[in-house]
Amino acid sequence: MEKDWADNFASFYAEIGECPVGFSLERIDVNLGYVRGNCTWIAKSKQNMNKRNNHLVTYKGKTQNIAQWAKETGIPSRKIQERLGYDWELDRVFSVDNKSLRHNLTLNDKTMCVLDWSKEYNIGESTIRRRLKLGWTVKDAITKPVEKLRIAA
Q: pLDDT tens for residues 64-77?
């Protein structure tokens, strides 16, 4: 803060005023300090969009952080982060149905839930789900045997 603000709260308060409910103090230019003319009250939800550590994603010519994409697409932000972590193409990240891994899966004209497929092929339900998240085809995710870890004797 500027010296007069740091040493005199009344001076700070006279310029900034009381904090509105749901707001917090923000620097207009993040490269400057909390100095006269560089501070304003801003809604906390909006301020969270301005963090330096936000992950910005450019998709179809539009750049937004993950929280903004989540709001626009209806896909939870944690799901977007997860999909980005799998290195999916952006079209897939933003177009795949959020609940696609919870629905029934169809293979050879037979439709069952993941749990039933896991029992039929003796492959863990979580293994099938993980494979699908990694982009495996339904057929491979359900039918490909799990390779056992071999330990040298």
A: 888 888 888 888 88
Q: What is the mean pLDDT of the chain?
A: 81
**Rounded distance between C-alpha atoms, residue 130 and residue 43, angstroms:** 38
Say which residue, 144 or 102, is predicted with more confidence.
144
> The pTM is what?
0.43
Q: Are residues 61 and 43 part of one domain? A: no
Q: Which of 79, 82, 85, 118 is nearest to 99 (CA)?
A: 79
For residue 82, what are the domain limits? 54-95
Three-state SS letters, the chain: CCHHHHHCHHHHHHHHCCCCCCEEEEECCCCCCCCCCCEEEEEHHHHHHHCCCCCEEEECCEEEEHHHHHHHHCCCHHHHHHHHHCCCCHHHHHHCCCCCCCCCEEECCEEECHHHHHHHHCCCHHHHHHHHHCCCCHHHHHHCCCCCCCCCC
Counted domains in the chain: 3
Q: Could you say which of 32, 49, 66 is where a domain stops?
A: 49
- Statement: residue 90 has pLDDT above 70: yes
